[in-house]
């Protein structure tokens, strides 16, 4: 119980520093995490035990600080996930043949919230770089793995876990989606990761236009039910690795990671169909009037995440204009093109 309390206290104590972008506080919190609680690592490494040796060396002075599980194949790694419940996964690309990137995708889909670090031969560096767009958090080149290199990779992985843990404290009690603070925290992290991987994001904001009317005519229970239905619809429209939040009383947002630019209009079409299905079951307070605005982002832009969010939210406050200059219905999706 003492270790658990220390970790919870560290999460609360670190939340303000993380929101303010205090790098040194974040590093101190991660270092404390590495020393206070047993780290569960799942390792799939071929032949030489270079990574296992470096891990044991790194934790040699920390009694019971490391629980390392070694497996010899991707299928065994996936089958072991629920047993080990790892905080970090290491995967040797040579074990993911004949299609290493497909192996990365399989592992990432099986444990999307667990940081995945790829191990690669120097001849496979290009493949290791591409793995970052398939779900890997980082990669290490075999033959150059020592305690210092491994510590850097683990710090990044544990900081990733810490951000997720802090954001879990920032959830809306009604819908269980992230709050605005949680969304900003994870969104900033997702944008930084996208810059490193040269990947892209799609940000969507949605608002229930007639929520006040629902409250006046049908009471708070109708409002709560409507909010929960919209939250469920959004969760069903996005992947488990995407970030969905309730930003305010009537406003929601979703951030699609590793999303290509053409996916923005496709996403709007998908949501329009789901909104139609939601309103098909016409109850006494139907239909829900939902307005959306979506924007594509690429690493070429210098905009911060909170500025990106402000831009998309601003599109909900003004009438969406069609190509002919006419105001479109509030129920239709409006796509904001990349500046």
Number of domains: 2
Give the integer mean of the pLDDT values: 78
Helix content: 40-55%
Strand order within the widest beta sheet: 2-1-3-4-5
Radius of gyration computed on alpha carbons: 22 Å
CATH topology of the largest domain: Rossmann fold
Q: Main sheet?
A: 5 strands, parallel
Task: Name the shape in a single word.
Answer: elongated
Distance between the termini: 51 Å
CATH architecture of the largest domain: 3-Layer(aba) Sandwich
CATH superfamily of the largest domain: Response regulator
Beta-strand percent range:
15-25%
Summed up, the helix count is 12
Work out the number of β strands: 10
Describe the model:
The protein has 339 residues and is an alpha/beta fold. The chain has 2 domains: 2-166, Response regulator (Rossmann fold); 172-336, Reverse transcriptase/Diguanylate cyclase domain (Alpha-Beta Plaits, 2-Layer Sandwich), CATH 3.30.70. It is 49% helix and 17% strand. It is built from 12 helices and 10 strands. It has helices spanning 2-19, 23-36, 50-58, 74-84, 100-110, 125-131, 147-168, 180-197, 211-218, 220-237, 263-280, 305-317; strands spanning 39-44, 66-71, 88-92, 116-120, 138-141, 201-208, 243-246, 251-257, 290-297, 333-336. Strands 2-1-3-4-5 form a 5-stranded parallel beta sheet, with helices on both faces. The protein has a 5-stranded mixed beta sheet with strand order 7-8-6-9-10, with helices on both faces. A hairpin with a 4-residue loop joins strand 7 and strand 8 (251-257). Helix 9 (211-218) runs antiparallel to helix 10. It is elongated, with a radius of gyration of 22 Å.
